[in-house]
Design goal:
The structure holds two protein chains of two kinds. By secondary structure, chain A is mainly β. Chain A has no helices and twelve strands. In chain A, the strands form three sheets. In chain A, strands 2, 5, 6, 10, 11 and 12 form a six-stranded mixed sheet that branches. Chain A has a four-stranded antiparallel sheet with strand order 3-9-8-7, with no helix packed on it. Chain A has a two-stranded antiparallel sheet with strand order 1-4. In chain A, a hairpin with an 8-residue loop joins strand 10 and strand 11. Chain A is globular. The model of chain A has no long low-confidence stretch (mean pLDDT 91). Chain B is mainly beta. The chains are: A mainly beta, B mainly beta. At the A-B interface, strand 6 and strand 11 of A face strand 4, strand 5, strand 9 and strand 10 of B.
């Protein structure tokens, strides 16, 4: 069964500093990988996704993520965080065959931004 | 494109009561998903529709839970004889093709 591990429950970063959120997945075949962001009272918003091809994926709001098959990782990065980036971030994996695209989420990483 | 909408946004009920939630997907999205999110956890898959057909149900979906999607448009999720353990955020998502799911704001259920 597929699974996702986000080892950092809570991260605090100064505004303007760089950010990396970790994600490790377990899946037998080539996974579909996603990062979502959830702000209080809001639904989940897709930041970026990886299906195949270039392992460095660009997303919205200046985020990027790199797929590393050898490490089973899909870490999210941003070179300079803004106060508005404070939110909960979820990594997710889906099976790579159509007809069964249910998402398996990690437990999330809460990001706090300090001035 | 008005996004996925869910109603109600909040529901408080007493243990043993039945509740029903509604999800209106983005127009023409043929795939619809229900997830449940408890405090401090990521969303967990409950069930999935392609058009009106319910193609998969999680083991989390006990006999007290039922979901429908008549005519392949909106969907309802009903919980019968609610228990305190049912308290959670219930999220709905829709997708045109399965490669990206668009989430609604969720329905927060509190069972007293």
């Amino acid at each position: 069964a597929q699974s996702v591990t986000q080892p950092d429950i809570h991260i605090t970063v100064s505004e303007g500093a760089s950010l990396e959120l970790r994600c490790n997945y377990s899946y037998g075949a080539t996974p579909y990988l996603f990062w979502y962001v959830q702000s209080p009272g809001q639904g989940l918003q897709l930041l970026l996704k990886y299906f195949s091809g270039d392992t460095l994926v660009q997303g919205i709001k200046g985020f990027e993520a790199e797929f590393k098959r050898s490490q089973s990782s899909f870490n999210l990065r941003k070179p300079s965080v803004h106060w508005s980036d404070a939110a909960e971030y979820f990594c997710a994996v889906a099976q790579s065959n159509f007809g069964n695209e249910k998402l398996t989420f990690g437990t999330g990483t809460r990001l706090t931004i300090i001035p | 494109d008005t996004g996925v909408s869910q109603n109600p946004r909040h529901k408080i009920t007493k243990r043993g009561q039945n509740v029903t939630f509604r999800c209106d997907p983005i127009s023409e999205h043929n795939r619809l998903y229900w997830y449940r999110q408890t405090l401090g956890q990521g969303p967990e898959f409950l069930t999935y529709f392609q058009n009106e057909a319910q193609l998969e149900k999680s083991r989390l979906l006990s006999d007290r839970f039922s979901a429908e999607r008549p005519k392949g448009s909106f969907s309802t999720l009903e919980i019968q004889r609610t228990e305190q353990g049912d308290s959670a955020m219930y999220l709905c998502a829709s997708s045109p093709s399965g490669d990206e799911q668009f989430f609604g704001p969720g329905t927060r259920l509190t069972v007293l």
